[in-house]
């Protein structure tokens, strides 16, 4: 049984659908999870889709990915812009990493233009809303097929 792709979501992403819908869209995180699972299933892959508001829990999950995941797709939310701990965990995991954002962070405030996650990521997908999760699954499928 191939290992699942961990799709990890950080702080405030549990509020998708109600939180600033003009920026993040009207789909809930459960909707996004279903989309992500469906795309993975169509490509013969499995997904472990999770969300936490806690930096340490995300670090624990990234450490778990080292043993239990084929790759990591990470929307770290605001921790993208602040967390060296998440960067260190990603580097330690030694798995392919795709950084993901619903919004185009480069059209937004300057403090969102820097990402610690990017330093560990093979690529970044941002600005395509919930569709970005499907794009990230496709990109991860390509990465894994090339290994
Ligand atoms: C986000 C962008 C971050 O800057 C923000 O803090 C989030 C969500 C996105 O998906 O667009 O919480 O990662």
Q: What layout of secondary structure does this protein have?
A:
Blueprint: E1 5-9, H1 21-24, H2 29-42, E2 47-51, H3 55-68, E3 71-75, H4 84-93, E4 97-101, E5 123-126, H5 131-145
Parallel strand pairs: 1-2, 1-3, 3-4, 4-5
Helix pairs in contact: 2-5, 3-4
This protein binds 1,3,4-trihydroxy-5-OXO-cyclohexanecarboxylic acid.
The site of 1,3,4-trihydroxy-5-OXO-cyclohexanecarboxylic acid has 10 residues, from loops.
Which features would summarize this protein structure in a list?
alpha/beta, 5 helices, Rossmann fold, binds 1,3,4-trihydroxy-5-OXO-cyclohexanecarboxylic acid, single chain, 147 residues, 5-stranded parallel β-sheet
Please provide a written account of the structure.
With 147 residues, the chain is an alpha/beta fold. It has one domain (5-145): 3-Layer(aba) Sandwich (Rossmann fold). It is 39% helix and 16% strand. It has 5 helices and 5 strands; from the N terminus they run βααβαβαββα. Strands 2-1-3-4-5 form a 5-stranded parallel β-sheet, sandwiched between helices. Strand 3 (71-75), helix 4 and strand 4 (97-101) form a beta-alpha-beta unit. Helix 2 runs parallel beside helix 5 and helix 3 (55-68) packs parallel to helix 4 (84-93). The radius of gyration is 14 Å and the shape is globular. The mean pLDDT is 97. 1,3,4-trihydroxy-5-OXO-cyclohexanecarboxylic acid (DQA) binds next to loops.
CATH topology assignment = Rossmann fold
- Name the overall outline: globular
Strands, count: 5
Q: What bound compounds does this protein have? A: 1,3,4-trihydroxy-5-OXO-cyclohexanecarboxylic acid
Average pLDDT for all residues: 97
**Low-confidence parts:** none
């Amino acid at each position: 049984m191939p290992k699942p792709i961990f799709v990890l979501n950080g702080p405030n992403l549990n509020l998708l659908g109600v939180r600033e819908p003009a920026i993040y869209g009207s789909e809930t995180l459960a909707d996004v999870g279903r989309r992500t699972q469906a795309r993975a299933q169509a490509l013969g892959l499995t997904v472990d889709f999770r969300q936490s508001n806690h930096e340490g829990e995300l670090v624990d999950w990234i450490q778990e990915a080292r043993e239990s995941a084929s790759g990591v797709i990470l929307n770290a939310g605001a921790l993208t812009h602040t967390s060296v701990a998440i960067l260190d965990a990603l580097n330690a995991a030694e798995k392919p990493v795709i950084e993901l954002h619903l919004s185009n962070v480069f059209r937004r405030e300057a403090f969102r233009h820097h990402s610690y996650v990017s330093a560990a990521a093979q690529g970044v997908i941002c600005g395509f809303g919930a569709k970005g999760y499907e794009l990230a699954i496709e990109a991860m499928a390509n990465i894994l097929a090339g290994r």
